[in-house]
Design a protein that fits this description.
Number of strands: 19
Largest sheet: 7 strands, mixed
Strand order of the largest sheet: 4-3-5-6-7-8-9
Shape: globular
Distance between the termini: 21 Å
């Protein structure tokens, strides 16, 4: 896709980047092109090392971190400590459906990837003990991580019992019996299946670590007697949007601007381009996040975003169509709410759609036929459908919807 022309930004963005080598010429001209992870990596970190940033790195006010990477490239960043967590707390505090649980000091228990838990344990290495120790898994005084396994589908009964017990301990000791569930939607669904009624009901829940299929969100809503909301963001930018209990998205764009860039040949998919000075040590201006969105009317109006539909690098391109994860998800959800995890493997013009179900029983013949036909019509592939008891999770602890 041909890169769009550079354009000016508002004075606050220009002033925030004038002294940064990466942006110096652009700021002088007030003419900023779209940038990507690859552009930033070419000259990092020298291109962001102003005297102020170097001083912040020495004092600990800034730190080097890596962005998360599931099936796409990771990027090194300079940012304040707990930058992402603070933007999470800001959304939680302001959210109309769950802000009361933040104000009440309810503890946050995270059920997400093992990599996230491992990261918290590394941060707390100075506390001593083993990485699995409870003291090592507190990120701050209100956020605790419990998952210690890569694949939640393979949790042992002992692992489930440990997590349920830790939830009960934390909510009793810190929350007067209450807790806020922070989760990867898949991990929460697995814990709900394994724990059943033994899992204490949270007072609020946020899922925001990856694309959440409609069936998985429906499962959470049916089994959690509390508001279930979604956050959208990234390591490098923090959180940008939050969902309400009806699934509508609302901006949370302090010190940010958003624009949409159409992707030719798609069914109205746009790239999400973000300008942010929220992180004072590494502003990102006209940064292509790599995330894709749909709008209510197909326009490039960011006020009309109705869903985040996957990553641009994970779009499936065939001779007849360009398909996003969300579009295949629509097909799956419309055929059966019982489908849990699914993965499309593409070889040439053929696709094999493997799936699991929440109850571990296969779709019936009519549903299988309908799913194959609808997926084929959507993608332009010849699709076969295959029930499995288990689809392995990726080494990052997230699922890949597409294998090719």
């Amino acid at each position: 896709m041909e890169a769009p022309v550079a354009r000016p930004l508002s004075p606050a963005f220009v002033e925030a980047t004038r002294a940064i080598p990466f942006y110096r010429e652009q700021a002088v001209a007030n003419s900023f092109p779209v940038i990507t992870k690859a552009d930033l990596a070419q000259s990092f970190p020298e291109s962001f090392l102003t005297p102020q940033v170097e001083q912040a790195l020495e004092s600990g006010a800034a730190q080097y971190v890596w962005s998360t990477g599931t099936n796409h490239a990771r990027m090194q960043l300079i940012r304040p400590p707990l930058f992402l967590l603070r933007t999470y707390y800001a959304v939680w505090q302001d959210h109309p459906d769950i802000g009361d649980t933040f104000a009440a000091g309810v503890p946050r228990i995270s059920v997400t990837t093992r990599l996230a838990t491992d990261h918290v344990a590394r941060v707390n290495e100075s506390k001593g003990g083993e990485p699995t120790d409870i003291a090592r898994r507190w990120l701050d005084d209100r956020t605790f991580y419990i998952n210690q396994d890569l694949d939640p589908a393979l949790w042992t009964p002992a692992a489930v019992e440990r997590m349920l017990a830790e939830i009960d301990t934390v909510r009793s000791e810190k929350g007067d019996g209450r807790y806020h569930l922070d989760c990867s939607s898949y991990h929460a669904a697995y814990l709900l299946r394994a724990g059943g009624t033994r899992l204490a009901q949270p007072v609020s829940a946020i899922h925001g670590y990856e694309f959440t299929p409609r069936n998985v969100r429906r499962f959470l809503e049916e089994h959690l007697d509390c508001p279930v909301v979604e956050l959208f963001g990234s390591t490098e930018l923090g959180y940008l949007y939050y969902g309400d209990t009806q699934g509508r998205y609302h901006p949370h764009l302090e010190h940010m601007e958003v624009e949409l860039q159409p992707i030719p040949g798609t069914r109205g998919i746009h790239n999400l381009i973000v300008s942010s000075i929220r992180n004072p040590f590494m502003p990102l201006l006209r940064y292509n996040t790599g995330d894709c969105v749909h709008t209510s009317d197909g326009s490039a109006d960011p006020r009309r975003i109705v869903r985040f539909c996957g990553r641009e690098k994970e779009l499936l391109v065939t001779d007849t169509a360009i398909t996003s994860q969300a579009e295949l998800d629509d097909v799956v959800a419309n055929v059966s709410p019982r489908v849990f995890v699914y993965q499309l493997r593409v070889e040439g013009g053929d696709g094999r759609l493997a799936y699991t179900t929440f109850d571990e029983t296969a779709l019936d013949a009519d549903e299988t036929t309908a799913l194959a036909a609808s997926a084929a019509q959507l993608t332009g592939l010849s699709v076969t459908v295959e029930h499995r008891r288990h689809i392995p999770i990726g080494k990052s602890g997230k699922y890949a919807w597409l294998e090719r």
